[in-house]
Structure formats: C-alpha cells, structure tokens
Amino acid sequence: MSTVKYIFGLTFFNLVLFHFPFYAYVLEHIELGTLDGVLSFFVVTVALFVVNIFFLSLFAIISTTFLKLFGFFMVFSAPIALYFMSTYNTILDRTMMGNLFNTNSSEALSYYHPKMFIYLFMGLGLVYLMRKIKIQKSKRVRLLKYGLGVTVLGVLILYINASKWLWLDKHAKNLGARAMPWSYVINSVRYKLRALKASKKQILLPPATFTNPNEKELVILVIGESARAKSFSLYGYERETNPKLKKEAIVVLPNVHATATYTTASVHSMLSYKGSSSDSYEPLPNYLQRQGVEVWWRTKNWGEPTLKVAHYQRASDLKEDCMGEGCGYDGVLLSNLMQNIKASKTNKILMVLHTTGSHGPSYFEKYPKSFEQFRPVCKTVNIKACSQEELNNAYDNTILYTDAFLASIIEKLKKEKGLSSLMLYISDHGESLGEYGLYLHGTPYAIAPDVQKEVPFLFWASPAFKKSKDLEELSFKRDEYGDANIFHSVMGAFGMKSSIYDKELDIFSK
Description:
This protein has two domains: 3-199, no CATH class; 209-232 and 246-365 and 398-433 and 450-497, Alkaline Phosphatase, subunit A (3-Layer(aba) Sandwich), CATH 3.40.720. The chain has 510 residues and is α/β, with parallel strands linked by helices. Helix 3 (35-62) crosses helix 4 (64-88) and helix 4 (64-88) packs antiparallel against helix 7. The protein is 45% helix and 10% strand. The chain is built from 18 helices and 13 strands.
C-alpha cells in the first residue's frame, strides 16, 4: 500500500470508528434537517479531515516508520479513550489530562470495568491487522505536495463557508476535546508545557523603596473583559452607556491600545514590567507582595499568570457572603470589599478585580435583568442569527453594567475620607460585533480590526491621592496609552522607586 493511501485510509477509519462522541455532540448542537445544519456538519467534518491529513502527512515526511508507529498508537489508544468518553461522559481537555497524570494507581483502577476489555481487545485487534499492512515508501516531496494540497483545499472550503466559523469558534473547545487522537495527544502536551512553565521560577525583580512608607494608600485595579472603547459614551459613543461614570470626576485616557486580542496575553502584558506577554519576570502582584504591599486578587475570569499573593479569591469563594442581584455577576467581586480593606494593618494595599465584563457570545448573561435597558436583546449564543440591533443592544447592556460596577467602587472609596485611593480600569482587549464579518475577539493582532484593539482606560482618584501626585498639573494627552502603563503607574501610585521603574510609562509622572 502506498503511503498516501495509508494516510487516507487511516484518516477515514479514524473518523468512522472513533468519533461517535464527536458527532453526537455535533448533532446535538445543530439542526441537521436545515441547510444551516448540513453546512455546519460538512464544515466540521472537513476541518477534522484536514487536521488528520496534515499531521499524518507530517509524520510520514519524518519517516514511514514513525507514521506506522503513530498509527499503532492511534488505533490502540483511541478505543480506550472512547471507553472513558462513552462510559463516564468525559471530554479529554487539558484539565482532564491533568487529572489523568495526577491519578494514582488505586484511583485509576477504580475506573476499570469488565466492559473496558472489549475496547482493549478492539485496539489490540486493530494493531494486529495494521501490522500486516506493508507501506511502500514515498518520496518526501510527493508527501509534502499531497499534504499541502489537501490542507489548502480544506482551508479553501472552510473559507468559502466562513459563515460557520462562529459556530466552530463557539464549540471549538468541546469539539477539540472529542477529536481522536488529537484531543488527548495535544492536551497532554499542553498540560505538560503548562506544568513545566509553572514549575520554573519566576525571575525576581530588584527591590523597591517607598517615598511615603507611612501613608495609607489603596489602589484598586479593575481588569475588564472584551470592552471596546467604541461602545463607551465616555469615548464618544452616541448611546449613553456610561451614565453613572460621567457624573464622577474621572480621567478618560485617549488612544488606548491593548497588546493582544485575547485575555491571557493581555493580562500578562499589563502585569509585566516590560509590557510583554512572554517574559518570565514576576508579575506586578507578586512583585508588590514581596515589597510589603498587601495584594488581593479577586476574579470571575481566568488567564492570569502564576500568582503568589496574600489573598486569592474566586467568585465562588465570595458568593457565600454576597447579597443582592449582582452576586451572579461581576458584582460578586465587591462582596465585603471595604471591610477587608479596613481590616488590613498594611499601609499599602493593591486590590485587583478581574471581571468577566462583556465576554461573548452570551452577552445577555453578563448583567442583571434590571440593566436590560437597550431592547430588543440577542438572547442566543448564535449571535450571527440575531439582528445587528439585537446584538448591539445586548453588548451595550454589558457596558451599562460595567459603568454601574465601576461607579459603585468609586462610591465606596468616596466614603473613606482622607484615604489616598485610586481606581484604575482597563479592558484586556476589545470585541468585534459583526464589523468586517468578524465576531468576538482573538483575531491575529496583525489583521485584527481596531475594535478588538482599542480599549477603555480610565481612573478615579481621591482628593488625598490627587494632592500627593499634583494631578491638577498633569496632562493626560500622550500619543498612546496601553497595557505597558499599568505596572509603572501602579508603582508610581504607591510612590515606589526601583531600577526597573520607568517614569515614561507612569501616567502619574511629570
């Protein structure tokens, strides 16, 4: 058998024999009797086919022996994975692979059932049959042409059916965790790489001193999610999406650009003294904690770097003591906020609130019913099926809730007379709402539209803070602001001096 036929045959049987959970999920989330459903089924099959051909061709180019060994591994391991997926309804994502690697022998044995031997013998039988197949070696150039040809053709088909990308994006995690054998192969590698990165020591930054160590100072850093400047009335949006903040003495910074279009990279950048998403230096919270600042990290989101702070609280931890309609939303992050701050014996406090903000596509689930001011609202995750008006309304309601959330923090701080306090707000990235046919975020930065890059960045300062920093004399009209300003501006807010401090990036520096 030629190598090309082997690759094609292995791909075909992989799709037919081991993808029952995959297609069960697909059929559960489409209407196959409609043209839209048929197209979704077709596109996801093409995508799966292309992934298989691409990797198998790559393995064949490395060597025919490597391809055959991987084929043995595939047909032996896939039935076992299929057993766990069909028996326990598990999906083989990175978290599940982590559970697998951290399971001891006694726990592992508890999952076994006599039925598993059926799948085990199936795998062994397939390996036995495949051993009898003789593969004729092909020239690497021919294999490269074949692999590239099929991949290009598949990508072209996917491009023609670009309207289905939104569906693929929405279900990517669940589909990827059910694709054999790539789900457990790739997610095992992802887990190991993440564990390796986490095990590496962060590079410690040089020590810092405080110009006013005995003064009580509080900085609240609010990290927004998927908020675009274009939808803030504070930035000129025709709708009144910031009715509460416009009444406050806030400073709205112009020309703000995120460094990435997805959360993990953006958050890493704003917490990095280099403003980079890939360096190994300790992030801002860890650095401040080491310098004697009491750091709190409250989150209803994810994507932060490895943190070593005094207090790390997830929304689930805070919900027990939360009261009111905001407890199911970002409002939960304000639970006992000032009580914790007042109870602190430390002079310097950093409180980070990582919100879920305006993360799509379920915008309608990001705010309480009382904030549904703009109607009608898109109430489906298939946002492409909504009208532009419904989509804009749902998204704008999330901004309206963010406005109230930030205003609530300001009201709490205003009650603390004499306290030098600061609230900084910046979104991790923006969001596409159908512009240029794009939705959500995550588009490669080089080709991402401005609405995914331009974000709101604003702050409120107490009278004591303004006095200490002479804010009345400062001009906030730099050419550009962004993630890189956060690290050094927080240092500046605390009056910290260090060899890494860059006053050019500190928005409070003269």
